[in-house]
Amino acid sequence: QVRVVESGGGLVQAGGSLRVSCAASGRTFSIDVMGWYRQAPGKEREFVAAVAWSGRSTYYTESVKGRFTISRDKSNDTVYLQMNSLKPEDTAIYYCNAHRGTGWGPGDYWGQGTQVTVSS
């Protein structure tokens, strides 16, 4: 099994920056992709960004390209989502996901989520 735990959410003003982290544990050798998803109130959960476990490839949803950066620290099995130029519409609960297999996910392993609130 794989366990993922998010941290680092909070409140930030529009235009500001925030970094959220996702620590993976357990059978991490079986992970192929780590991703971030978000869910705003009253909306469906949506894909934000993903990184191959090797760290070589990344993939972003169009609305965050140029503002968000996903990365993986191999030394501690942690994935980061650096969020810059934040907008009020980025407000959501951000969930980390671990995926095994082909494609970008999502996989079966979800964290509990971390709240990101961007004030205008």
Give a description of the structure.
This protein is 0% helix and 53% strand. With 120 residues, the chain is mainly β. Strand 5 (46-52) and strand 6 (58-60) form a beta hairpin. It is globular, with a radius of gyration of 13 Å. The N and C termini lie far apart (40 Å). The model has no long low-confidence stretch (mean pLDDT 96).
Salient structural properties:
120 residues, four-stranded antiparallel β-sheet, mainly beta, 11 strands
Low-confidence stretches: none
- Secondary-structure element string: EEEEEEEEEEE
For the termini, the CA-CA separation is 40 Å
Helix % is under 10%
Shape: globular
- Portion of residues in beta strands equals over 45%
Mean pLDDT: 96
Count of distinct strands: 11
The DSSP helix count reads 0
Brief account:
By secondary structure, this protein is mainly beta. The chain has strands at 2-7, 10-13, 18-26, 33-39, 46-52, 58-60, 68-73, 78-83, 92-99, 109-110, 114-119. Strands 2, 4, 5, 6, 9, 10 and 11 form a seven-stranded mixed beta sheet that branches. A four-stranded antiparallel beta sheet has the order 1-3-8-7, with no helix packed on it.
List the helices and strands and how they pair.
Blueprint: E1 2-7, E2 10-13, E3 18-26, E4 33-39, E5 46-52, E6 58-60, E7 68-73, E8 78-83, E9 92-99, E10 109-110, E11 114-119
Parallel strand pairs: 2-11
Antiparallel strand pairs: 1-3, 3-8, 4-5, 4-9, 5-6, 7-8, 9-10, 9-11
